[in-house]
Amino acid sequence: MRNESPTPQTANETEADFLHCMLAGLRRQPKSIPPKFFYDARGSHLFDLICATPEYYPTRTETAILERYGAQMAARIGASCRLIELGSGSASKTPLLLRHLADDAVYVPIDICAPHLLQSTARLQALFPQMAMQPLCADYTQLSAQDMQSDAAQRPVIFFPGSTIGNYAPQEAVQLLRDVAQWVGHEGGLLLGVDCKKSPALLNAAYNDAAGHTAAFNLNLLARMQRELGAQLDPEGFFHYAFYNASLGRIEMHLVSRCRQSIRLGNESFAFEEGETLHTENSYKYAAHEFGQLARSAGWHLKTTWSDAQGLFNVHYLSLSATEPRHLLPFGTP
Q1: Structure pTM?
Q2: Residues 6 or more apart whose Cβ sits within 8 Å of residue 149
Q3: CA-CA distance, 66 to 81, in Å (whole number)?
Q4: pLDDT tens digits for 127-153?
Q5: Domains located in the chain, CATH noted
Q6: pLDDT tens track for 31-81
């Protein structure tokens, strides 16, 4: 079947967005920048390494849930759907769902990193040659309902694995869920992964792996600023710091300045005191009832939850219709 690819974001548009967001974040007090810029080619590779570490439980746990319940999920969302994956990355878990979809289903992966997107799409197309695939290189947070309009007959379903929803503050997450509701319309669906609250020791270990891949992933943002934006800075002058903030229910990642120094970007200079941080990422954790409440405030209704035996991770199916019955299917339920 023919592949159709919407117009991707240009290199100039990507660089302009990167520069704008970096300047805005460095001007902010406290300094903070959005995590979407982690994912250049090197950052995407480092994230794949993180997912394979023994400490980072989310990937293998969600994979096990998809492996066990993929057929149920496909039946719930419709085997002939138009599956739109946000931040598809390497799409390593996606085949566990695609293998249960019909040949007339359409897969639309969206990712900000063009090389990663094209490589993963080519791999999936080889695995599912009869399925139409429409890769879109874009920042999904910048897309509108008009951008996502399609004349396809298939029911649109958003696929958002990996607990990326946790990277957004609760109010931001609500806005994103409202936006994607506009994309898919009243008949659409949403299938997404959400990391659960758990032992702080387990959470802290997951974001401070012994191999140092998470530290390299965080610090790579500085190298990218140097390479792509011409920033004047010393990457060795910062170190990775991640911890679980129990009061806010989130992991925080920071780059901490080792000394008094500055970052020069464009025509501006940004001073850092020793110990001052650049806040690079949050990862909020939600109990199932907490996420259900958040989703309802965005107009979504929680219908089905699949989980693992330890209650580490949930995959939720949501609908904009309140009329479907709600089911709770824990890991191990036949």
Answers
A1: 0.89
A2: none
A3: 17
A4: 999 999 999 999 999 999 888 888 778
A5: 1-232+286-334 (3.40.50.150)
A6: 999 998 998 889 989 999 999 999 999 999 999 999 999 999 999 999 999
